[in-house]
């Protein structure tokens, strides 16, 4: 197990090296782009969670979608014993251990362009993904 990944208490997070646009450093973590960070902060404010430091971004993988696996995201404030926690650009990102195996070195991105608006995952572990980018296979 990488030294950056461990069972963490509720108030601890592993600090991963910051990813740079277009050049994610591969250090067995989960990263967030600057644009996605700004959108997460805005959504936390809209939900009234921005002033509560117990909340974090939970990401995961579930079965389903046209390629076999789908991404999920939500705000959470309960960390489970086997969760893996990371911090990138000041955003705490938590995932369950099983999902982390699919998400290692993934960067959460946000697009607001003409071809679609929303979050997407730049996942180096995906062997293929569907056209909408919401599901993938390994």
Layout of helices and strands:
Layout: E1 14-15, E2 31-32, H1 34-46, E3 56-63, E4 69-76, E5 84-88, E6 91-95, H2 97-103, E7 107-113, E8 116-122, E9 128-129, E10 135-137
Parallel strand pairs: 1-5, 2-7, 3-6
Antiparallel strand pairs: 3-4, 4-10, 5-6, 7-8, 9-10
Q: How is this structure best described in words?
A:
With 138 residues, the chain is an alpha/beta fold. The chain has a single domain, classed as HesB-like domain (Hypothetical Protein Aq_1857, Chain: A), CATH 2.60.300. Helices cover 14% and strands 36% of the residues. It is built from two helices and ten strands. Strands 1-5-6-3-4-10-9 form a seven-stranded mixed β-sheet. A three-stranded mixed β-sheet has the order 2-7-8. A hairpin with a 2-residue loop joins strand 7 and strand 8. The longest helix is centred in the N-terminal third of the chain and has 13 residues. 26% of the residues are buried.
- At the first level of CATH, the class is Mainly Beta
The stretches of 5 or more residues where confidence is low (pLDDT under 50) are 1-25
The sequence of SSEs as H and E is EEHEEEEHEEEE
CATH-defined architecture: Sandwich
Which range best describes the helical content: under 10%, 10-25%, 25-40%, 40-55%, 55-70% or over 70%?
Answer: 10-25%
How many separate domains make up the residues?
1
What fold name goes in the CATH topology slot? Hypothetical Protein Aq_1857, Chain: A
Helix count, per DSSP? Answer: 2
| Strand order across the largest sheet | 1-5-6-3-4-10-9
Percent range for β-strand residues = 35-45%
Radius of gyration: 14 Å
CATH-assigned homologous superfamily: HesB-like domain
């Amino acid at each position: 197990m990488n030294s950056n990944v461990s069972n963490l208490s509720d108030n601890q997070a592993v600090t991963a090296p910051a990813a740079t646009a277009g050049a994610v450093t591969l250090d067995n973590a989960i990263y967030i782009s600057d644009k996605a960070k700004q959108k997460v902060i805005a959504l936390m404010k809209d939900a009234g969670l921005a002033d509560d430091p117990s909340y974090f971004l939970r990401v995961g993988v579930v079965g389903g979608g046209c390629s076999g696996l789908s991404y999920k995201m939500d705000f959470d404030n309960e960390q489970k014993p086997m969760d893996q926690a990371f911090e990138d650009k000041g955003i705490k990102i938590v995932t369950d251990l099983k999902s982390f195996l699919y998400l290692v070195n993934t960067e959460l991105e946000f697009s607001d362009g003409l071809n679609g608006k929303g979050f997407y995952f730049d996942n180096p572990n995906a062997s293929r993904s569907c056209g909408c980018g919401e599901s993938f296979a390994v």
